[in-house]
Design goal:
This protein has 215 residues and is α/β, with parallel strands linked by helices. The protein has 2 domains: 2-49 and 112-210, Rossmann fold, CATH 3.40.50.2020; 55-109, no CATH class. It has helices at 6-20, 32-45, 79-85, 89-111, 134-146, 161-166, 197-210, and strands at residues 2-4, 26-29, 49-51, 54-57, 68-71, 74-77, 123-127, 151-156, 173-176, 185-187.
Length: 215
């Protein structure tokens, strides 16, 4: 059993990122757990840290009904799932609008008074802790692509085969510590504490305080 703290995973991933990326990248955290990993990558590489919020599209009260995801500036729909679930288009549009409101709320909570950093023409490293679903990662990566990044990397301690397949053609390269479906690998906060929105904001604020970066 391999158990890594999110911070240790970040330090190890930073080495892989430094080998793959020659310039100083912009590091974007995908999830609260991912923010701890991303915070360490940004600290080691002396790179700017920002976040990208994303949420699943589900039918309320209906288990296993995910049909897409909404991220900052992008919506990814699984059309075959929408058809299978028999969802009317106006109903789907309503759920998308609600999801966008939630993404805006989370983005504001994670950033606080800090401004979003420009990603156009930059090398960006999207970071997760290995716990996010494929549809959420693809949603975030799609949103980042739409903003005109130069190159997009995805860094994570490990990932599922499904996620790796879903990211084909969406990111330029994956940087991982362990191969997909590496049995017995866990990445978590050793104190078992839940990473809150305030914790994410504190990581972003601390990074901005240590660096002067263009918004």
């Amino acid at each position: 059993m391999v158990v890594l703290s999110q911070e240790e995973a970040g330090r190890r991933l930073a080495k892989g990122v430094s080998l793959a990326v020659r310039e100083v990248p912009l590091v974007l955290a995908l999830s609260p757990g991912g923010a701890r990993v991303a915070g360490e990558i940004a600290r080691v590489l002396e790179a700017p840290l920002d976040i990208i919020a994303t949420t699943r599209l589900d039918v309320p009260g209906r288990p296993r009904s995910t049909f897409g995801a909404v991220a900052d500036g992008a919506t990814v729909l699984l059309e075959d799932r929408i058809h299978t679930l028999g969802l009317p288009r106006d109903y789907v549009d309503g759920l998308i609008n609600l999801a966008r409101m939630e993404v805006d709320r989370v983005s504001a909570a994670w950033r606080g008074s800090e401004k979003a950093l420009a990603v156009k023409d930059r090398t960006v490293v999207l970071v997760d802790d290995g716990a996010s679903e494929a549809v959420l990662v693809v949603g975030a990566a799609t949103a980042i692509r739409k903003l005109g990044v130069a190159r997009l990397f995805f860094a994570t301690p490990t990932a599922t085969v499904e996620l790796c397949q879903a990211l084909a053609g969406v990111v330029d390269e994956r940087i991982m510590l362990y191969e997909p479906e590496c049995i017995g690998t866990q990445v978590r906060d050793p104190s078992f504490a839940h990473t809150t929105e305030f914790d994410v904001h504190a990581l972003v604020r601390r990074s901005r305080a240590n660096r002067t970066v263009p918004a």
